UniProtKB/TrEMBL annotation:
Membrane-spanning parts: 6-25, 103-121, 127-146, 275-295
Record membrane topology: Multi-pass membrane protein
Subcellular location: Cell membrane
Cellular component, GO annotation: plasma membrane
Entry protein name: Tight adherence protein C
Organism listed in the record: Promicromonospora sukumoe
Main location: membrane
Source species, domain of life: Bacteria
Sequence ranges assigned to domain Type II secretion system protein GspF in this UniProt record: 169-294
Keywords, in A-Z order: Cell membrane, Membrane, Transmembrane, Transmembrane helix
């Protein structure tokens, strides 16, 4: 590794550290507007039981990751979209905490890229520009990996919700058919069942006990999930509560539809896996079979010649 390359990489690391320190020192300055804001902004009349609690940790506030994440927000999804994805993932963390976690993942990617760049510079003597590009790409990969991890959490939770929906619907149908009201049936299922959907129902019941209308809580449950079957499930209960329509048959029909949709998705997944299983057969097993079949003939022809 040449001396100027090592010096350039060391200077890059020092410059990044100085920029982080300067940005933090600048963020500590409190403007006049921020000082007057607590006395001039209107008071929120919403009950404290229904407000979103900020779960930003002390370490995040101490390191200034909150401010850095807010500045990096322009490169990612909007704040409302991130909040919706966190709700769909069943996470109680705030958007600021998620942005701070993205900053941590980005810094980890930059550190990994810097270590790899130093290793390549020491062993191969690579140029500075590709090494700097490698560090930047590694940091971007860390930023994207955090976002993709949230997407994977959302997908897995939605799969669990769809798997639990038929059972919950059948339990509600049995409770309603036995003579209980829809709200009492929901409370019974929430107290006896376990799982992601039961947790959502318990959250809905907590909102009702805090003062929210039942229909509004059910609508919020449908909005948080983002799944069409679960939205139809909540809308069916809302219609039954508002118009007095029979609910047991609707819930059984919804459970049957969800099971049919799950069966179709399994058949589609099986068809895709069947096509993927042909890849090793065509590109691995078949060439080896052809080689074993042709090689003795080629060896015999070579001996004859």
């Amino acid at each position: 590794m040449t001396g100027w390359a090592a010096g350039a990489l060391a200077g890059l690391g020092v410059a990044l550290g100085v920029l982080v320190v300067l940005s933090r020192l600048r963020a500590r300055a409190v403007s006049l507007d921020e000082r007057l804001a607590p006395y001039l902004r209107p008071r929120d009349a919403t009950s404290t039981l229904l407000r979103e609690v900020s779960r930003t940790s002390a370490v995040v506030r101490l390191l200034g990751l909150h401010d850095i994440g807010a500045r990096l927000e322009r490169f990612g999804a909007p704040r409302e979209q991130v909040r919706r994805r966190l709700d769909r993932a069943g996470s109680a963390e705030s958007v600021d905490h998620f942005r701070a976690r993205q900053v941590v993942w980005t810094v980890a990617g930059l550190a990994a890229g810097l270590g790899l760049a130093l290793l390549l510079a020491a062993t191969r003597g690579a140029a500075v520009v590709p090494l700097v590009a490698l560090v930047i790409v590694a940091g971007g990969c860390g930023y994207v990996a955090c976002d993709q991890a949230l997407t994977l959490r959302v997908r897995r939770r939605e799969e669990r919700l769809l798997a639990e929906l038929p059972t919950i619907a059948e339990l509600l149908a049995l409770a309603v058919a036995a003579g209980e009201s829809p709200q009492a049936a929901l409370e019974r299922v929430a107290s006896t069942a376990r799982g992601e959907l039961a947790g959502e129902i318990r959250r809905m019941i907590a909102e009702v006990r805090a003062g929210a209308p039942v229909t509004a809580a059910l609508t919020a449950l449908a909005d948080r999930s983002g799944l069409p079957p679960l939205s139809r499930f909540a809308e069916g209960i809302v219609v039954a509560l508002e118009r007095g329509t029979p609910l047991a048959d609707v819930l059984r029909a919804q459970a049957r539809d969800v099971r049919e949709a799950g069966r179709r998705s399994l058949l589609e997944a099986g068809g895709r896996k069947e096509i993927l299983m042909m890849v090793p057969v065509v590109f691995l097993v078949l060439p080896v079979t052809v080689v074993f079949a042709v090689f003795p003939s080629l060896a015999t022809l070579r001996i004859g010649l």
